[in-house]
Amino acid sequence: MINRATILLVDDDHAFVELLAMRLESNNYLTLRAYRATPALKILQSEAVDLVITDLKMAHMDGFELFEKIKSDHFGMPVIMMTAHGSIPDAVDAIEQGFLDFINKPINSQTLLHTIEKALCNTVKASLSNTKHNYFGISFKSCAMRQVVHHIQALAPNNVNILIQGESGTGKEVAAKAIHQASGYASGPFIAINCAAVPSHLLESELFGHKKGAFTGAINDKTGLILSANNGTILLDEIGDMPLDLQVKLLRVLQERTVRPVGSHTEHKINVRFLSASHKDLQQAIVNKEFREDLYYRLNVVSLTLPSLRNRVEDIVLLANQFVDELSSHSKTINPQAMTHLLNYAWPGNIRQLHNVIEHALVLTPGKLITEDTILKALPTQHKRHFQGLNDAKKQFEYDYLKKVLSLSEGNVAEAAKLAQRNRSDFYKLMKKHGIS
Ligand SMILES: Nc1ncnc2c1ncn2[C@@H]1O[C@H](COP(=O)(O)OP(=O)(O)OP(=O)(O)O)[C@@H](O)[C@H]1O
């Protein structure tokens, strides 16, 4: 379980602090409040704070002065500054002085949460920490997964339908189980059905059940999976593969909260939490008329996206070692060269593929050490390197820099060019090179 982060809010506008605290607490953060810089410093001496968000303009001691004191007494403490809307000089100063980030007032909720999560992940504490986490079966170390788990912690207790998206094998079912276990339905059943794996003519009866004699082959009454999941959670996996006629019936179930088995006249009331998952782009499926838009909005009250494994390399080492421990009875280890190949692989099949590769490598390893040769044999030959070389890393830096400067200047290219100390035509060229319009 990951701990809830504690955020210290500092601003002399009491009402604003209260509002901000409410927003953050409803997103599963703990908050501490200070209405001036001096009490904020006192709080920092006595409480375990993970992040400070401070206003710039405050009576007695402003945000910059507060930041200087925090830097000297609490090394590594991430501090985000709030700036008045459009105040580019303040924002530039803040970044130059070493503030981790800045947020413009009035504050947009999405930007706020994104900035906070980014800051918490980038702290000195987080980057030095070697902590592995396990949240109801989700093992992780990466910031990307930390954000997902944080999201799950906030969403699980609310009975909203969640659509879980992500490439195949990224752990959508594992995430669904974690949501179930962290929710009020945890004492009830968790049932998963893969809509793509059941022949379409059987899917309806599988989900809703049937009465004896409802169709050829219905020799007994059958309870459907939705009813079996009563007081618990059902995961409709690969929902994008559900036939259109069944989508209409599912929509009705979600609206009425009742289920009628095939061939029956009886409606059964249900109390089930619906989670669905898909590796397909459902919005594209709507455009292609393969998925109903009304059902999409019912299922996707909130969406959760799982990052692909190549975007969370810190988890590769953790998961590879975990799978070795789970799958081998004798304590085997992966040697560093072999691990480098695992880190360099693109993992199109994500965690499931990593699991299979480790399983394969273990079969090929009679001794205690899984070597480079063995890993190369176990990995599909057409694997491509994705670990960034220096040139790619430089390009990425340039791209991120341009985006940051443009964000500081709120899209004003002339202003951005000035900040970057380039003339305007150079700056346009750089933007063009990176496809930024
Ligand atoms: N964070 C994790 N920690 C440990 N094991 C994991 C994690 N995430 C996924 N796995 C393992 O990876 C495999 C694939 O996970 P899962 O079935 O949840 O993926 P999925 O996204 O639902 O796949 P698909 O799109 O094919 O349905 C499983 O064996 C699962 O146990």
UniProtKB/TrEMBL annotation:
Keywords: ATP-binding, DNA-binding, Nucleotide-binding, Phosphoprotein, Transcription, Transcription regulation. Residues 6-120 form the Response regulatory domain. Residues 138-363 form the Sigma-54 factor interaction domain. It comes from the Bacteria. GO terms for biological process: phosphorelay signal transduction system; regulation of DNA-templated transcription. The modification 4-aspartylphosphate is found at residue 55. SMART domains: AAA, REC. PROSITE patterns: RESPONSE_REGULATORY, SIGMA54_INTERACT_2, SIGMA54_INTERACT_3, SIGMA54_INTERACT_4. Gene3D superfamilies: 1.10.8.60, 3.40.50.2300, Homeodomain-like, P-loop containing nucleotide triphosphate hydrolases. CDD domains: AAA. The keyword Protein biosynthesis does not apply. Coiled coil: none annotated. It holds the Pfam family Sigma54_activat. GO terms for molecular function: ATP binding; DNA binding. This is Two-component system response regulator GlrR. It comes from Pseudoalteromonas aurantia. The lineage of its organism: Bacteria, Pseudomonadati, Pseudomonadota, Gammaproteobacteria, Alteromonadales.
